[in-house]
Amino acid sequence: MAIRLEDKKAIVAEVNETAGGALSVVLADYRGVASGDMTALRAKARAENVRLKVVRNNLAKIAIRGTEFECIDEALVGPTLLAFSMEDPGAAARLLKDFAKEKDTFDIKGLAVGGELMDGNQIDRLAKLPTRHEALTMLAAVTQAPITKLARTLNEVPSKVTRAVAAVRDQKQEAA
């Protein structure tokens, strides 16, 4: 089906805007996946702020020019689903990895983050990144540990003095 030039320009502008604000992108071959399953995947993606795009490869190549995802140009072959992570760099990777476990026909072709294209079998590098909430929790725990140790140490000084005074008292009572 032919697409009008105005529609092509709109598609390119939309994908370019999405790519410009994305932290990472995962490319997948979606051939053989039922439309109902794709609808469910899109619903999960919206919940995790992952934008899924199915665009003609020529339009996608034009749209990614000038973004950090120019490196995916060579991977745009055949039917390709683009999953852009908008807030969490690993969100799209986790989403598509889990979906690929359920659907044998769904194949992850590659991923890009920071201007670097990686093979699809390296999806774990991105999928295992902690979420923003998990990272903040780890940071809080690391920050809190020295303060907690300091408080315990400072609390131990009066306890030692109290035990020493009690020992001297007990010693004097026994002597008397």
UniProtKB/TrEMBL annotation:
InterPro entries: Ribosomal_uL10, Ribosomal_uL10-like_sf, Ribosomal_uL10_bac, Ribosomal_uL10_bac_type. Pfam families: Ribosomal_L10. The keyword Cytoplasm does not apply. Keywords: Ribonucleoprotein, Ribosomal protein, RNA-binding, rRNA-binding. The keyword DNA-binding does not apply. GO terms for cellular component: ribonucleoprotein complex; ribosome. Signal peptide: none annotated. One of its GO terms (molecular function) is large ribosomal subunit rRNA binding. One of its GO terms (biological process) is translation. Belongs to the universal ribosomal protein uL10 family. Part of the ribosomal stalk of the 50S ribosomal subunit. The N-terminus interacts with L11 and the large rRNA to form the base of the stalk. The C-terminus forms an elongated spine to which L12 dimers bind in a sequential fashion forming a multimeric L10(L12)X complex. Forms part of the ribosomal stalk, playing a central role in the interaction of the ribosome with GTP-bound translation factors. This is Large ribosomal subunit protein uL10.
